[in-house]
Design goal:
By secondary structure, this protein is mainly β. It has a single domain (about 10-135), classed as Peptide methionine sulfoxide reductase (Metal Binding Protein, Guanine Nucleotide Exchange Factor, Chain A). It is built from 2 helices and 9 strands; from the N terminus they run ααβββββββββ. The chain has helices at about 10-15, 20-25; strands at about 45-50, 55-60, 60-65, 70, 80-85, 95-100, 105-110, 120-125, 130-135. Strands 3-4-8-7-6-5 form a 6-stranded antiparallel beta sheet, with no helix packed on it. A hairpin with a 5-residue loop joins β1 and β2 (about 55-60). About 35% of the residues are buried. The mean pLDDT is about 95. It catalyses: L-methionyl-[protein] + [thioredoxin]-disulfide + H2O = L-methionyl-(R)-S-oxide-[protein] + [thioredoxin]-dithiol. Keywords: Oxidoreductase. Its EC number is 1.8.4.12. Pfam families: SelR (PF01641). It is an enzyme of class 1 (oxidoreductase).
């Protein structure tokens, strides 16, 4: 199901999101490791963008990476995320953004040896997500 693209002013985002959510989702911040709501959850369900609600990941692709943030080996639909080269902080990484509202979600890393089907680790801030448990 395709959702219409979400475009809001900075003022509208600030009104919708808490200051911590705004710092991560709109300013590409990072929550502290091992503090996020979904880091260790094993709940079965669907993870969506906290800013716009588009589906991003499913719990069956979530795995234990012990990195301090929820890790997934693939998005539920590759069209729902955008991957952007990130050279900030003197590192070369790939940023993951929501394709629907352009919110920052985290980063993706490849070839770290976790033994996942894709050999990818989508390292996502809990604060960028909501979890809808399945029955």
């Amino acid at each position: 199901m395709t959702q219409p693209k979400v475009t809001k002013t900075d003022k509208e985002w600030r009104e919708q999101l808490t200051p911590a959510e705004y710092a991560v989702l709109r300013k590409a911040g990072t929550e502290r490791p091992f503090t996020g709501e979904y880091t260790d959850t094993k709940t079965t369900g669907v993870y969506s963008c906290r800013a716009c609600g588009v589906e991003l990941f499913r719990s069956d692709t979530k795995f234990e990476s012990h990195c301090g943030w929820p890790s997934f080996y693939a998005p539920s639909d590759a069209q729902n995320v955008v991957l952007i080269e990130d050279r900030a902080l003197g590192m070369r990484r790939v940023e993951v953004r929501c394709a629907n509202c352009d919110s920052h979600l985290g980063h993706v890393f490849h070839g770290e040896g976790y033994g996942t089907p894709t050999d990818d680790r989508f390292c996502i801030n809990s604060i960028s997500l909501t979890l809808e448990p399945t029955e």
